[in-house]
Specification:
The protein is an alpha/beta fold. It contains seven helices and 14 strands. It has one domain (2-244): Ribonuclease Z/Hydroxyacylglutathione hydrolase-like (Metallo-beta-lactamase, Chain A), CATH 3.60.15.
Amino acid sequence: MEFRVVGCGDAFGSGGRLNTCFHVTGQSTRFLLDCGATSMVGLHRENIDRPAIDLVLITHLHADHAGGLPFLVLDAQFFAKRTRPLTVAGPPGLASWYPQAMELAFPGSSRTRQQFPLTLVELVADETWRFADLTVRPSPVAHGEAIAPAYGYRIELDGRVLAYTGDTEWTETLVPLGRDADLLVAECYWFAKDVPWHLSWATLARHLPRIAPRQTLLTHMSTDMLAHLADVSCETAHDGLLLEI
């Protein structure tokens, strides 16, 4: 499994980084984990074959994690000339949010008829969902009542386990979500502060022995966290990073 960081920044572009978007390539399936507002910039920059993407998994409906969907869909329609199906899956509320997001980005676009099948799937917390050769288990995380539910994902593909926290403060659901994963991608917004809705390195480090992933990658870092990269023991993400899982 190939894991490429298309964008790993926070909502405010700290460190000049693009919004969250990860591209995962398996033996027969390619998918995005989140599709933040700047994702099309990153997909072009990394020369990623956009029509080959089978699935977009959205953790929550903040623009820095989902705001790139209108651009991805319209690019597929008018420029990439996509014909193969595209599935977008995420938390409850996705189906009603999607046309609103399209209209906000490009008025009238929600009524455009795609030349490819587009399917929206609202995932049920703690229920395994299968797509092609993926299995996905969404776990509720704690990112504030206004955006609930927000999900983290435990994904199995090609005999490997990829876990992604999404945006969240510490919650015990992160332990089974990431336990023994081949790669745990963990948001780490702050270095030592305990602030609602987001993780700090100090908090995550206390719990990592319980989670025991084989590899951990920190992402979604604020300027505070970016100033302390030399003080952490895990690998930290940067736009364009490529990992083999």
